[in-house]
Design goal:
alpha/beta; four-stranded antiparallel sheet; 10 helices; about 25% strand; globular; binds S-adenosylmethionine
Length: about 325
């Protein structure tokens, strides 16, 4: 894990346009900061998706088209704290479905907390957590022949550039059977005045989340990042519908990373790209799905039309 982290950091910081993979945001501190982000007044994404799950859980479950008498696997990719998923789990219990809930997450801490919370609040739900990178578990989906419903919520897909998203969904689709379903949460395109504050809140929690990546490199890779040398600098391209988070160097300086054995130079104004958050509409998603076996079957939206949960199926 540390070797891979060091390798990814070296790859990212050695490029002409520096970048770091967003999956490294999620250590214990990052998980807690993300829970705080989801409660921010500016972070409309979680509230909008929560509204969909609170008000339309029964319709969503109906769209899964699973047989009540047949066991199925409910697999969630990047489950986090699973707050929204609980609405579905509760409704599935009420309706008497027979399933295991299999949350997959790269953060062991997030999975442990989720399992403990579900054990307390929904003890009837059978939870079988899987620790790992969701890019790496796609192939293993084929190992089980049970029907599957995959949840990929919170617009996590938006962290991938379109081409990677298309490849990911292609691989995911090719490992599913024709009756399996994918529930894909997607943040919808809207104006900058709604989107920008979600990535640059007044309280500074999104800033702390971004800076945590530097602190994590200091702790785990023995790096010498000084957060005072950086600004939190999110951007949103309204025409394309793509938000990006950056760490922007305030001055010329250098940083040593013991785990990579290298020193990295930063110029004043130079940016490290830390996260992409793509926004969607039906056309953008359909274009991404073109090279995959997946088609859109249903779409559930919140009242403000800020967010959509799409049900996809293999055609
Ligand atoms: C933005 S949070 C969203 C959590 C949840 N899906 C929601 O909608 O509230 C992203 C979650 O995905 C996990 N994650 C990010 N990249 C991952 C990867 N490549 N493989 C597995 N989990 C990942 C993180 O640890 C975190 O718990």
């Amino acid at each position: 894990m540390i070797e891979q982290f060091a390798k990814d950091v070296d790859d990212g910081l050695s490029q002409a346009e520096k970048k770091l993979p967003s999956k490294y945001f999620y250590n214990k501190k990052g998980d807690a900061l993300f829970v705080e982000i989801m409660q921010l007044p500016e972070y409309y994404l979680s509230r909008a998706e929560m509204e969909i799950f609170s008000e339309q859980a029964a319709d969503i479950i109906q769209a899964f088209k699973q047989d009540k008498g047949t066991y199925f696997e409910l697999i969630e990719l990047g489950a986090g704290d699973g707050t929204k998923t609980r609405k579905l789990l509760k409704q599935l219990q009420i309706e008497g479905y027979h399933y295991d809930y299999i949350p997959v997450d790269i953060s062991k801490n997030a999975l442990d907390q989720l399992e403990a919370a579900l054990h307390k609040d929904l003890p009837q739900v059978s939870v079988k957590p899987k620790h790992g990178d969701y890019f790496e578990i796609l192939e293993s989906l084929k190992n089980s022949h049970h029907p599957k419903v995959i949840l990929f919520l919170g617009s996590n897909i938006g962290n991938m550039p379109d081409e990677i998203a298309s490849n990911f969904l292609y691989q995911l689709g090719s490992n599913l059977s024709s009756h399996d379903k994918l529930l894909l949460g997607a943040d919808l395109i809207k104006s900058a005045d709604v989107i920008m504050p979600a990535y640059n809140d007044k309280k500074g929690v999104t800033k702390a989340f971004n800076f945590n990546l530097l602190q994590r490199m200091n702790e785990e890779l023995e790096a010498t990042f000084d957060i005072d040398n950086f600004d939190h600098a999110p951007e949103y391209d309204e025409k394309q519908g793509i938000a990006k988070s950056f760490l922007k160097s305030k001055r010329n300086h250098e940083v040593a990373v013991n785990a990579t054995g290298k020193i990295y130079q930063f110029k004043q104004g130079e940016k490290i790209h830390t996260e992409t958050s793509r926004k969607y509409n039906d056309k953008i998603l359909s274009d991404i799905l073109q090279k995959t076996d997946l088609t859109i079957e249903h779409k559930f939206v919140d009242k403000k039309h800020y967010f959509a949960d799409y049900i996809l199926q293999r055609h």
